[in-house]
Amino acid sequence: MLNFSDILGQSHAVSIIQSALQSGHIHHAWIFHGSIGIGKFTVAKALAAALLDPDASPNLTGIIEADPDGRCVHLIESGTHPDYHVIRKELATVSRDRDIRDRKQMNIPRGVVLEFLVEPASRSGHSDTNHSALASKVMIVDEAELLATEGQNLVLKTLEEPPPGTVIILVTSRLDKLLPTIRSRCQRVGFSPLSDDEMNRWLQRFINNQSQAPSGGGDAETHRPISDEERKWLLRFAAGSPGLAELAMNNHFYNWYDEIAPRLRAIWNGRFDETLGKRLKELVDEYAVQSIKGNPNASKGAANKAGARFMFQLIAAEMRAALRTVIAKGGSPDRILYLIDLLQEAEQQLNANVNMEMMFENLVLQWDAGRQDSSAWFATSGI
Questions:
Q1: What's the CA gap between 134 and 24, in Å, rounded?
Q2: pLDDT of residue 214
Q3: CA 90 to CA 294: how far, in whole Å?
Q4: What's the whole-number mean pLDDT along residues 84-110?
Q5: N or C: which end of the chain has fewer CB within 10 A?
């Protein structure tokens, strides 16, 4: 998707970008920030296409975008545009530096920034692809919060002395992880979660695209129908993030919900489940093993942490639903807020590299202790 007109939501972000395109004065450095999976990278890619395409022009609604049938879009979509560069930690596996190639990467190391951003940015653009375009090169750093400190300093030097015609877009879900000096030199654009109506429209578009895609003898689950109950859960889990919704469908997280949600409610209503902590860890392990399959350089530790965060997201979605139920019944939200505090503490333990099984088991024990302290409330809360 390289057309602004096809992007759901993010009207504020798109309007800021369109104002810049219409003025013809493009800032050399941008930060697109907001929660995971809400369209930051998609918009960055659309902006790159509009900047690199010499035939970019207003469509019938006045939105400036690349020619959808033009050469520039074709090259970007095929990954062969010589002046379009996406920098991710996965580039470590194709680095010229063997030490970087052989190391399991949990961040974007300095060597990747040097090889795939700084050096290409310093070279001249290809005149046969960017003649009269608004930019000669566009560099997108995806998950920029993963930039190591040394890598951020290299980016900063490039921002301070930008090569002519080069535009750098940092895409991040953790603006606070970027150096203040980097933030101060960039045009910042904030992105917001999609509304329920926008998420429903996105989900229907996604389902339609999946049903029209050729199966190719692949996984039949890709084209399976989605029940009304799963659709409601997806919207609850994703919390306005199409990226999270797609990830949940691709990894069958609804199966997690189907198993775990009743056990959560049982604990919150007084029936302790001594095996739940271990089971949460097992599900996260299964996700991690599957997600790194076929990639020997992938980090099992990073995959485990990602899986744990998705599990936290699932539990948090159920807590938000419980909170709405309690408030609708005129009850006090204090105890649900207490459960949420415990979940946040567990997330902090995850970031501090506490043993994951111990972390989950401790979380379940704390829930049970909280239930014992407030058994009458939990018994009447309706969650």
A1: 7
A2: 61
A3: 13
A4: 90
A5: N
Cβ of 268: how many Cβ atoms within 10 Å? 23
The Cα 166–Cα 164 span in angstroms is 6
Of all residues in the chain, the percent with pLDDT exceeding 70 is: 91
Nearest to 270 by CA among 382, 380, 372: 372
- Termini Cα distance of the chain: 41
d(CA 155, CA 182): 8
The token duo for 249 is: 């469908």
CA distance 88 to 381: 46
Which stretch, 109-118, 316-325, 363-372, has highest mean pLDDT? Answer: 109-118
- Whether 137 contacts 168, CB under 8 Å: no
Q: What are phi and psi of 239, to 5 degrees?
A: 50, 45
Q: 95 with 111: CB under 8 angstroms?
A: yes
Work out the mean pLDDT of the chain and round it to a whole number: 88
**Out of 128-132, 133-137, 212-216, which region has the weakest mean confidence (pLDDT)?**
212-216
Alpha-carbon span 228 to 220, nearest angstrom: 20
Q: Strands 84-87 and 64-65: what pairing?
A: unpaired
Kindly report the length of the chain.
Answer: 383
| pTM, 2 dp | 0.86
> How is residue 105 annotated by DSSP?
P
- The one-letter amino acid code at 381 reads S
| CA count, 13 A, side-chain hemisphere, 121 | 28
